[in-house]
Amino acid sequence: MSIQVRNLRKAFGSFVALDNVSLDVPGGELVALLGPSGSGKTTLLRIIAGLEPADAGAIHFHGEDATDQPVRERQVGFVFQHYALFRHMSVFENVAFGLRVRPRKVRPSEAEIRDIVMGLLHLVQLDVLADRRPSELSGGQRQRVALARALAVKPKVLLLDEPFGALDAKVRKELRRWLRRLHEEVHVTSVFVTHDQEEALEVSDRVVIMNEGRIEQSGTPEEVYDRPATPFVYGFLGDVNLFHGRIHAGRVSIGESELPAPEWADAEDQPGIAYVRTYEVNLGPAASGASSMEAIIRHVRAFGPLVRLELDLVDGGSTVEAHIPRTQFNSLALSKGHRVYLSPANVRVFAQPS
Amino acid sequence: MASIAVSRPATTAPRAVTRATGESRAVRWTLIVVALSFLAFTLLLPLALVFQQAFAKGLSAYLDAVKEPDTLSAASLTLLIASIAVPVNLVFGVAAAWSITKFDFPGKNLLITLIDLPFAVSPVISGMIFVLLFGAQGWLGPWLLDHDIKIIFAVPGIVLATTFVTAPFVARELIPLMQEQGTEEEEAAIVLGAGGWQTFFRVTLPNIKWGLLYGLILCNARAMGEFGAVSVVSGHIRGETNTLPLHVEILYNEYAFAASFAVASVLTLLALVTLALKTLVEWQQRRSASQGAADNEAGSSERIAA
To answer: CA A265 to CA A251: how far, in whole Å?
Structure first.
């Protein structure tokens, strides 16, 4: 079941939460809405669910207009950040709730409900805890109950609002992988909201990056990470260095050095910013062409497979961060205070916003 | 105060501890004695006196006073009033608390303030309001007279005054509780396909039931015991518009002390039952609240065997 979002607008008072947002989620995909807090991602999810009305725009489920459909008829599964389990019901009754509130004609029999619920609890590996109250479960277990409860009504789409946000780092990582496997098993179209870039990149088929009520970029994790469409996406995904310079005829000059900027072939001396990933800064003992910049190592953090270096540019004095493999670090025999030459690779240049 | 005196020794030298605790013990006992003797004189002694006076002329006189037709009629009127006022305030209280905590609407703050109005004004004024509205010289008086509807000095007036005076109990109990619980569980229920009533009866009501019961018990106690507002609107017609509290006063003014205290003891028993119920409900509420707290705290350190 695919989801189409068309020109959605939503404002809370003077704060614009969504500004003309359009989005397509193909059926069966697991899509992450990624962005900082206040970027509108949760609002978008709640409007898709029907928990929040949009000011303008439309929502279609599999081509059918669902914009004015009440929440209870939309057949969506929603997982809340703080679980929102019914605290006075057992785990079993929580999962059975969506089946029990159906009109008598379409309500499954008691035996069917039992089969469905126990099947789902088995799927989330909580069948032995069916009689417990939510208060007797850990955070990770509660979120799995919430997921089973959402799946019990056979939703057309599954929506998850920061599903792992309230859990600690370790449980988070495990639940993340587990959600990925679960999605491969049930294959329901799923949208989840997160502010954790690692979570979004690791779990989803597609990442939608939002900022200030707009979609900045949408694509596979590889696409958005390797080819960020906007400076915001560059800064939001992974560590990045910024070099301020001037763009002219396909080249950007930063201090004494020059870097290629082929997409700016027609530019005539305008201010620009070059973005370089920290792991794409090459270091060497001597200058190697026009792109080289002289720098002094200010700080070294040598743990793990990557050595993190902080360098001060001799020309201009700004700080650059470089992550290089430990083997390279060892063969260059670098240490604090050394003079090195760095040359950025895969530079992406954006015009400086005036 | 006591807690300050107790906590101080922990930070001082060992010798000071013994002296400090010695002093604090004295302070503690003084405070306890003061509090308990105040309670004894103002609460326990009158309570004992009520029963002593009630049985002053023996058990049979007590039973006669309680079985007297005017007393029985006052008791049944009191029960009738409570059986109308309490359900009305149950509905009003839940509706008010629901709308205040689950929705945003213009005039919300005004409503929160207005709910407290009956507590803020003297009960006599509450009664006067209805006399001014529905009395013979009142605003709607002539119209009511034309249509032969009696409100003041009749049962409807007593019901109105009692309902007004007891209006805040349920709502005030529920608003903080429902504010704390938020709307997520209701949202979850609606997403799962539940209708409005299903959501209310299956999700909201079970979550607020102890707070609701607590509010109802207090509301009921006040509805049966209200004197001031009811006294203004009732007219004290024996066997017709006399409630138990009014009947106690009438008997007392007629120097029928034993009978007066016998009726008073019935009301006092009601108060004791209310207190016992209230304690029980509070205990239940604490239990479910501590469960809720465990809900929020419980570790997320569980690992998945997947």
So the answer is: 8
Question: How distant is the Cα of A157 from the closest Cα of chain B, in angstroms?
Answer: 12
pTM, two decimals, is 0.77
Task: Check CB contact of A125 with chain B, cutoff 8 Å.
Answer: yes
What CATH number is attached to the domain comprising B180? 1.10.3720.10
Does a structural domain hold residue B303? no
Is residue B299 a part of any domain in this protein?
no
Digit-coded pLDDT (tens) for A23-43: 999 999 999 999 998 899 999
ipTM, two decimals, is: 0.82
Q: Which domain holds residue B44?
A: 2-48
Q: Are residues B8 and B135 in the same domain?
A: no
Nearest to A72 among B195, B301, B304 (CB): B195
- Render A109-152 in DSSP notation, one character per residue: PHHHHHHHHHHHHHHTT-GGGTTS-GGGS-HHHHHHHHHHHHHT
A72, B305: Cβ pair inside 8 Å? Answer: no
pLDDT for B295 beyond 50:
no
CB pairs under 8 A between A and B: 115
**CB-based burial label for B210 (10 Å; 0-12, 13-18, 19+):** buried
Residue of B nearest to A153 (CA): B192
Q: pLDDT digit string (tens) for B242-262?
A: 888 888 888 888 888 788 888
Q: For chain A, how many residues are written?
A: 354
Contact B169, B214 (CB under 8 A): no
B301 belongs to a structural domain:
no
